[in-house]
Amino acid sequence: MIGSGPNGLTAAIVLARAGRKVVVYEAQKTVGGAVRSAPLTLPGFTHDVCSAVHPFAVASPIFRSMPLAQFGLEWIAPPAELAHPFDDGTAAMVERSVSDTAAGLGPDAAAYRALVGSVVDDWRRLEEVVFSPLTLIPRHPLSAARFGFNALRSCDAVVRRTFAGRDARALFAGIAAHGMLPLDVRPSAGVALVLGALAHIVGWAIPRGGAQKLTDALVGYLRSLGGDVIVDTPVTNIDEVSAKTIICDLSPRPLLRIAGHRLPDAYRALIGKYRYGMGAFKVDWALDAPIPWRAESCARAATVHLGGTYEALIASERDAWDGRVCDRPFVILVQPSLFDASRAPAGKHTAWAYCHVPHGSTVDMTDRIEAQIEAVAPGFRDRVLARSTMSPAEIERHNANLVGGDIGAGVSDLRQLFARPTWRWHSTPVKGLYLCSASTPPGVGVHGMCGYWAAQRALADG
């Protein structure tokens, strides 16, 4: 195995369960890929380096099959799943209950129950569709067809047809923007439907102690099965690895760097055309007090979306996609220490936020991100003890899969959703060489299912 992200560790666990001897090589000094924690600001403050909130992990079929709680993983469920404040001091909320969420959406209550609630009600029949390569024939085709009718559309198309009020339109668009696509591009609605439904099904939970605890639990379970993980050991040439089966938790560009010489010209050219999308600019803060939200309900949620109205979100995501820097970017913020005291010294707090920027952008977005927070939480900057920033280039240095700061490991539009990174999916033309990163089906998200499917393919090949 090359790479110790959640997909790489999952693939290793599946192989180890099948009786294979498994070793995972990790280039960085710590394990986890995009699921790591570190003291980025001051001693005693624990920050998540990349991912922080993990509904996919809680819902993951393969993670459910693992005894991760025995290896220290504990989930925290905040009182509310999501807050979306506006400049007038109010906030739209996603509650755990579909009915409670709908009740706060006024004229859009029935529409929300019908759109998102239908996915929640049908989830057990849709789970395989979400967590499998999309061209597999579903066992529940009618449910899949109903879901696909909206999921494969753009967020803009669904919002304009479904919602009339400010709050529902902004909530749905903010969730869709996690997909790192312009909101008028298909299938951005699918991101909102899945993540929105998961808020009601399993919640937008955080691991106690930080994202690293999820990685540590996966490593602990792997080692209990006889597998091993070796850190600070970059593989620069695939020929250095002597194994019958090599599964790479790598996106196409880093794969080409270490294995391009072994790949046929046609396949090498094909994955060389794999498209990476907009990047992210991230800021972590050590705070001497909680964020002073004008809308007090924001303190009930670990995740807060900043960016105002639906129209503002549309403009922000289109700007980043088209190579422009937005003065008022859409910001995804997480405030874990409100619910997990282990993240900071007594009385202190942490916060984490990012916005989307053009691929590989070198523009410092710190002031713009903090201005978006100040607009709905006046006095925020006065509470900052220290901050750490990560540009797209720095994000890529932390994880080579995230080329240009693309934390989705590649564009997830229709073309790359089905052929990810090619129609071979997890296989390559080289016997015994496989891919398992988020650049393979079912795609981005901390769920380990890319690793599961890659391992299944490897086991089937013998």
Q: How would you explain this protein's 3D organization?
A:
The chain is of the alpha+beta class. The protein has helices at residues 6-17, 55-59, 61-64, 98-103, 109-121, 123-130, 141-151, 155-162, 166-176, 188-201, 212-224, 252-259, 265-272, 310-322, 366-376, 392-398, 414-418, 449-461; strands at 23-25, 37-38, 47-48, 75-76, 82-85, 91-94, 206-207, 228-230, 246-248, 279-287, 303-306, 331-334, 349-357, 384-390, 433-435. A 5-stranded antiparallel beta sheet has the order 11-12-13-10-14, with helices on both faces. It has a two-stranded parallel sheet with strand order 1-8. Strands 2-3 form a two-stranded antiparallel ribbon. Helix 1 packs parallel to helix 11 (212-224) and helix 5 (109-121) packs across helix 10 (188-201). The longest helix is centred in the middle third of the chain and has 14 residues, at 188-201. The two termini are 16 Å apart. 55% of the residues are buried. The model has no long low-confidence stretch (mean pLDDT 96).
Key phrases:
single chain, 462 residues, 18 helices, globular
Q: In a nutshell, what does this entry contain?
A:
The chain contains 18 helices and 15 strands.
Topology, pairings included?
Elements (H helix, E strand, L loop, with lengths): L5 H12 L5 E3 L11 E2 L8 E2 L6 H5 L1 H4 L10 E2 L5 E4 L5 E4 L3 H6 L5 H13 L1 H8 L10 H11 L3 H8 L3 H11 L11 H14 L4 E2 L4 H13 L3 E3 L15 E3 L3 H8 L5 H8 L6 E9 L15 E4 L3 H13 L8 E4 L14 E9 L8 H11 L7 E7 L1 H7 L15 H5 L14 E3 L13 H13 L1
Parallel strand pairs: 1-8, 9-15
Antiparallel strand pairs: 2-3, 4-7, 5-6, 10-13, 10-14, 11-12, 12-13
Helix pairs in contact: 1-11, 1-18, 5-10, 8-9, 8-10, 9-10, 9-14
